[in-house]
Amino acid sequence: MSSKMKAGKVTSRTKADEASKAGKAAVVKEDGKLKRGDYDKQLEKLHIELVKLQQWVVHKGLKICIIFEGRDGAGKGGTIKAITERVSPRIFRVIALPAPTEREKSQMYVQRYLPHLPAAGEIVIFDRSWYNRAGVERVMGFCTEEQAQKFLKAVPLVEKAIVESGVILLKYWLEVSPEEQTRRLESRINDGRKLWKLSPMDLKSYSRWHDYSRARDAMFAATDKGFAPWFVVRSDDKKRARLNMITHLLGWIPYKEAPREKVRLPKRQKAHGYREPDYPYKFVEEKF
Questions:
Q1: What is the DSSP letter of 259?
Q2: Cα distance between residue 239 and residue 20, in whole Å
């Protein structure tokens, strides 16, 4: 890590700590979990900091890549939504690739991910990434053991090249307990809002908890490097996990408040004879 990064980490971490300091005092436990109001207050403060980060990334032309991995039901989607709901989707780009096509299967493994890496002024979030090979593909038999081993050997070299190209690379693993994973997956079965979250692959994966644990351990051992470390987020409490993860993100990336001009709304033009037309607009029925 460069001296600039180290210095920046101290500065931005202080900002993130200040953003969450009040939250530590405001935490109210209800069966060990945050009250919604306390969560919303702290998330609002972190959203303000994320917007500052966004503006700084654009101002300085930074390139940031954030990888989210974890077991099914660990809360990756909700965490990503918490990060992105108040920022620009043109700057914070979320990448969730579908299963590879036959053509993509014939390519170098990481090839289909590389075009999505950030350019200057972008933050790219991978909702699952090239680490599919170290996890679901290995456990579910979609690749051979030899292919998995070659991936684990090669990926640090690829990530080193990514980092040396100027990309700030962050890798988060969301860890959920078996009991909480069971509760969350069961909640999807009868909730019409969550049916899309429960796939046949999720059910097959659920029964292989220890195989996934072994795959995770091997992945960490091979790819947890100083230039691209893994950070583990305990996610049994989704609200705390999101606040902790975003606070860590803001503390890791050096940023300041970007300079900007004071904004004032201009005067509206005069009508100069314009009148609203007597047109039969098809208004949406107002049921609420």
A1: P
A2: 13
- Per-block average pLDDT, block size 10, for the chain (288 residues)? 40 53 48 86 98 98 98 95 98 96 95 98 98 96 96 98 98 97 91 85 89 97 98 97 98 96 93 95 96
Nearest partner of 18 among 250, 261, 285, 276, judged by Cα: 250
Residues 94, 125: contact at Cβ < 8 Å? yes
Residues 6+ apart with CB under 8 A from 232: 172, 173, 174, 175
Q: How far is 134 from 120, CA to CA, in rounded Å?
A: 29
pTM of the shown model = 0.86
pLDDT of residue 15: 55
Helix H or strand E segment including 92: strand 92-95
> What is the β-pairing status of strands 167-175 and 63-70?
parallel
d(CA 220, CA 218): 6
Domain boundaries, the chain: 3-99+112-252
The answer to whether 174 touches 248, Cβ cutoff 8 Å, is: no
CATH 3.20.20.70 fits domain 3-99+112-252: no
Cβ distance 110 to 130 under 8 Å? yes
* Distance separating alpha carbons of residues 197 and 206, to the nearest angstrom: 13
What are 203's two structure tokens?
């059910």
Q: What's the rounded Cα separation, in Å, for the pair 135 and 216?
A: 7
Q: Quote the pLDDT of residue 216.
A: 98
Q: d(Cα 235, Cα 176) in Å, to the nearest integer?
A: 5
Report in angstroms the alpha-carbon separations of 129 from 17, 68, 124. 29, 7, 11
Residue 188, C-beta contacts closer than 8 angstroms, at least 6 positions apart: 194, 195, 197, 198
Write out the two tokens for 121.
Answer: 């002024």
| 121 to 73, 96, 99, 180, 263: CA distances (angstroms) | 31, 20, 28, 37, 22
